[in-house]
Design brief:
By secondary structure, this protein is an alpha/beta fold. It has two domains: 114 residues, Aspartate Aminotransferase, domain 1, CATH 3.90.1150.10; 212 residues, Type I PLP-dependent aspartate aminotransferase-like (Major domain) (Aspartate Aminotransferase, domain 2). 42% of the residues lie in helices and 15% in strands. It contains 14 helices and twelve strands. The strands form three sheets. A seven-stranded mixed beta sheet has the order 2-8-7-6-5-3-4, with helices on both faces. A three-stranded antiparallel beta sheet has the order 9-10-12, with helices on one face. The radius of gyration is 21 Å and the shape is globular. The N and C termini lie far apart (58 Å). The N terminus is likely disordered. Bound molecules: pyridoxal-5'-phosphate. The site of pyridoxal-5'-phosphate (PLP) has 13 residues, from helix 5.
Amino acid sequence: MNQINRRNWLRTAGLSTGMLVLGNTSAFGFEPLKEKFDSDRLVMLNANENPFSPSFRIQQKISDNFDLICRYPFRIEDELIEAIAAKEGVPKNYVVITGGSTEGLKAAGLIFGRDGGEIIAADPTYQSLLTYAESHGSKIQRVPLNDALEHDLEAMADRINKKTGLIFICNPNNPSGTIIDANTMLDFCKSHDDKAVIFSDEAYYDYITEPEYPSMIELVKEGRNIIVSKTFSKVYGLAGLRVGYLIAKPEIATQLKKSVMANTNVLAIKAAQEALKDDDFYKYSIAKNMEAKLFLYKSFDELDLRYVPSHSNFVFFESGRPITQLQEQMKKEQILIGRPFPPLQDWARISTGKMEHMKLFVQALKKVMSD
Ligand SMILES: Cc1ncc(COP(=O)(O)O)c(C=O)c1O
């Protein structure tokens, strides 16, 4: 595409220079573009998405690479693998790119849960790996979270047996937003990775507020039986493009690569590479998420509702009424909130949104709770 055509195209696509000028007004050097979604009507606080569209820089990168769509992604995947390997400090053969981290979760669940293999996981936790493995014949050992809604690693260790193929740990946990004490997690992994593969789902790792909190990639580097998943869907705001990755030692990474089915796509690869360089958007995402969370905490305090301080982009709170009822009531107010997380039936998970949406949520919650 030559310069003039590109300019025309950008104009018709709504990415006009006017928006570029607007971009320079933000404290972060840009202002994310207005989404063309349905969110003017419905406030979507139900899927832990980043509420901000990618920065202009990322959108530009995507549009610059439209002409590559006729090519298969394997031609350029290596560039992203290299960038991820550099970021995580591992050799390139430790990196497995996947179509969102969901694809990696499912591949691992399939490999290590098959042939009668059991999987141990907290309850409630993120289900993707578990339900997929279950539907392919694996047995899931679900271990309740403790009273603080944290992983009960001792109880999980007690469930390890000869059939255990994988231990799934979502850290920070979805839906509770809790993290495991760093040393406890490191000790657990070091003590049990000889009995089963340990899967550390770190989709929300970037939101952890505890300084120097270790990724379990540190243990992968020691050659341990650990898989770590990360995603571009959360802090990087690329959920719709479907790109994530797994980090594991080569023996495991090779197995995982064989089970990945869809992989990612050309535009996602280009966007992810740019996202890794786009510090402004990264910092903006983290700062806006914190602002929204602090507002939610304050509002829950005012309403005298119990909640769990969260290391993620959502907050779990006890509404005291059945979640299905609350969901319905909030939907009538045009607000979508998280699904049921049995057995915690009167708890609700709220994803962070733009501040105007957070205010609408609290306004509606006050109304609904006074019914
Ligand atoms: C804990 C956790 N892991 C993984 C995912 C999957 O995200 P994606 O497939 O978009 O990378 C999610 C999505 O909400 C999640 O909450």
